[in-house]
Amino acid sequence: MSERPAQRTPNRQLAALIAEAGFSNAGLARRVDQLGLEHGLDLRYDKTSVTRWLRGQQPRGTTPALIAEVFTRRLGRRLTAQDLGLDACAPVYAGLEFAATPDEAVDIVSGLWRKDSGSHAELRKIAFTSAGLVVPSRDWLIGRADEKVARPEPAVRVPAQIRSAGGPAGRPPGFAARRRYAAERGPGQRVTGGDIAALRSVGELFRTLDDAYGGGHARQALVRYLEHECEPMLRGSYGEQTGRRLFAAVADLTRLAGWTSYDIGAHGLAQRYFVQALRLSQAAADRTYGAYVLVTMSRQAVYLGHGREAVQLARVAQQGAGGSTPPRVQALLHAVEARGHGVLGEVRACTAALVRAERALESARPGDEVPHWVRFFDEAQLADEFAHCHRDLQQFRAAVQHAERSLQLRAPGYARSRLFCRVVLATARLGLGELDQACLLAAEAAGQAAEMRSVRAVEYVRDFERRLEPYRDAAPVRVYRDRVAAHG
Q1: How far apart are the C-alpha atoms of 271 and 273, rounded to whole Å?
Q2: Where along the chain do its domains lie?
Q3: Superkingdom, according to UniProt (predicted)?
Q4: What is residue 168's predicted lDDT score, i.e. its pLDDT?
């Protein structure tokens, strides 16, 4: 790797941190190379490279941020490139930071939106890193809501001719003209309750599209909306109460951008969106929503087979949300923990978490006030969680029972969730030796997957097909393949 010309001043900050971390020069280089691999980078640093850094040379590209992350993981506190005496950069790595202030959070997340809305295809290729979950979840758990998020309206330099313009009765001269001038001036817009209501409505629209057609249908439109509408609002002016509501609404849209990224298989990018949504929820002073973001991250970990991390994230969410959360939220938190135990094959822990989820949902009352984002978690969703867990534990008869119940209760608008559940039911039928019925169910799901833009939907079908391999010469399997081929 080529380096910039050496500086004359040795890097004492880096030297001190190497000593604190107990790294050798070769050990630091090896860790930077390994972290680079997690992000699809083929780095070839060695102990000589570290010696040059210590002498004052600056590594190029993404490397300063990678070195900072190596020390962050080792020392358990957030460190930046500047803390190491290195030049700052704007790498594809950016986005896993848990910002220290609301302004920094806005800078990080808006940078992510801008890169994602452009032609930066490399963002969608970044790998998921389970180690990248540790610092953000810890910082959220031990952190507190930001003391102040309000942004005062900047003074407007109004031209003299506008200042002197006559106004309506009861208003000072120039009042109406100054109002029009302020409203049209662009940056620094005053955020209103109507703006936030619009953000909520947009979120519901994109959520409905995602549920019915998959994350790939409207993901880019959502990201562009975040860039062009949400960033000007965050950089506008607002009081404390409006500011908290604004950060909450933008956190929800950012989590949804992560969810749709996850659905198309862009797992590293999704992870970054989730981390930033978590940070925005802290600015919103909404611990319950932060817990929801963490269980979203837990779901992604389950999907990728990181069961231990999934359980830890769900437990951090439970601890951070506290015991006063609505019963439906508690049910969700316990159900997601159960999914992690299911992936790990931990029967007793999985069953206990499912029982807690069931009891929490049973304690919910029709008149309870619940957050809009948890309304999806009803009896149909809980039955779906049971079905997935029993499938993972190879308890196929119970999986069939719960999957069928979920499909009976689930509304048609949740098309992708119904597809997932149908594949779980097919897998359970296959586990019970009911090959004909399993293939019929899976063929129906494959047809639906072909109509969606959802990598997860395709992967569910492919997982079932891998389980079909021992029966590949059976007549029902040949019929299944013919039906799937007809769908393209």
Answers
A1: 5
A2: 12-91, 100-123+143-152+187-283, 409-488
A3: Bacteria
A4: 47
